[in-house]
């Protein structure tokens, strides 16, 4: 059983990746009841009472809210699994009327209105695919669209699309999430190539060498890059590398920090990583790479790892029954992955199996 995608991912639509992502904005009206787990004003108040990661002003911002709120963490995990890139979710709250000038972001954004309402003016980009290093002046043309977001509405903006908030409704109250989607660019790919274990890339440049020595270095670098860029599998290999090194949002497993009681019928395990690589080594052993680490197990463990990588929560006894392993064997694997920070364990009566 694979963990169901978050309702926000479902709402974006099956054609989102092929027709919208990185191409154009999309406004998706909806009902807040169809998006369970969104933060409420009470959640905000509880967070303010316990955390200090805030930016005060007319609008209050809590950065990386996905690290503080379970429902928002589930949203970020589901988006990461779908888009194969890092997601950071910030919460923004305002209780008074505010207006802003046009601005753009160096990343794509999914906006989710959780409470109140906020008006968005959207302008086409003045520079396609900008990065954080670029500077642009506001567009001289009129906005492409204006939308008043109410609870449950979604808005997707590619990076570089300008947006502004004119004077909002009279009460001015708004509670919304912005999901920042880290771009994966050609520059990132080239940087990865330059980090490959090649001696020529590690050598000092011949800063004080002869013209001939400098030319040989340039020729060698050109050949290395040319050979890498003629490999049709390069992008897929780079994405697999990114998947294998994607960071994990931690979830504590107290009181189970080192060992777990395998005989407990209500003990559940869940893989925390949203991206990973799983397969067999040349000698047939099961290999899981996640969060920059690699674990190798006996071949019989592969079905267990395949079950865990669906990101659903499973009872230990179900994992044993489904894979032919004993509960003790399952517990040993789970303990090893838990020690690596990529599995969380908790005890409750709900869950798969």
TrEMBL record:
Keywords (A to Z) from UniProt: Iron, Metal-binding
Pfam families for the chain: JmjC_2 (PF08007)
Gene3D superfamilies: Cupin
Cofactor requirement: Fe(2+)
Claim: Metal-binding is one of the keywords in the record: yes
Residue intervals of the JmjC domain: 57-198
Keyword Signal found: no
PANTHER family in the cross-refs: MINA53 MYC INDUCED NUCLEAR ANTIGEN, RIBOSOMAL OXYGENASE 1
Protein's name according to its UniProt entry: JmjC domain-containing protein
Organism listed in the record: Streptomyces amakusaensis
Upper taxonomic lineage: Bacteria, Bacillati, Actinomycetota, Actinomycetes, Kitasatosporales
């Amino acid at each position: 059983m694979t963990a169901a995608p978050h309702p926000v991912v479902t709402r974006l639509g099956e054609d989102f990746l092929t027709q919208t992502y990185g191409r154009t904005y999309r406004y998706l009206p909806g009902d807040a009841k169809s998006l369970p787990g969104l933060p409420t004003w009470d959640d905000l108040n509880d967070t303010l009472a316990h955390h200090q990661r805030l930016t005060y002003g007319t609008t209050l911002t809590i950065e990386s809210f996905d690290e503080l709120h379970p429902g928002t963490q589930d949203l970020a995990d589901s988006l990461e699994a779908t888009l194969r890139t890092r997601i950071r979710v910030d919460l923004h709250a305002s209780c008074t009327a505010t207006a802003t000038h046009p601005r753009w972001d160096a990343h794509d954004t999914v906006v989710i209105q959780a409470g109140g309402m906020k008006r968005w003016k959207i302008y086409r980009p003045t520079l396609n695919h900008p990065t954080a290093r670029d500077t642009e002046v506001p567009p001289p043309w009129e906005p492409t669209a204006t939308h008043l977001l109410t609870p449950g509405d979604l808005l997707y903006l590619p990076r570089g699309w300008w947006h502004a908030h004119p004077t909002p409704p009279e009460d001015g109250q708004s509670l919304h999430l912005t999901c920042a989607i880290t771009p994966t660019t050609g520059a990132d790919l080239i940087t990865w190539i330059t980090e490959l274990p090649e001696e020529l890339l590690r050598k000092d440049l011949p800063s004080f060498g002869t013209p001939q020595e400098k030319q040989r270095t340039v020729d060698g670098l050109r050949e290395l890059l040319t050979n890498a860029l003629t490999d049709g599998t390069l992008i897929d290999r780079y994405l697999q590398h990114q998947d294998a090194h994607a960071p994990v949002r931690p979830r504590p497993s107290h009181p189970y920090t080192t060992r777990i009681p395998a005989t407990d019928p209500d003990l559940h395990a869940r893989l925390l990583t949203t991206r990973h690589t799983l397969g067999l080594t040349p000698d047939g052993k099961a290999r899981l790479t996640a969060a920059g680490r690699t674990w190798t197990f006996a071949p019989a463990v592969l079905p267990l790892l395949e079950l865990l990588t669906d990101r659903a929560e499973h009872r230990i006894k179900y994992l044993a029954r489904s894979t032919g392993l004993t509960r003790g064997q399952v517990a040993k694997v789970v303990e090893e992955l838990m020690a690596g920070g990529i599995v969380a364990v908790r005890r409750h009566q709900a869950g798969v199996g």
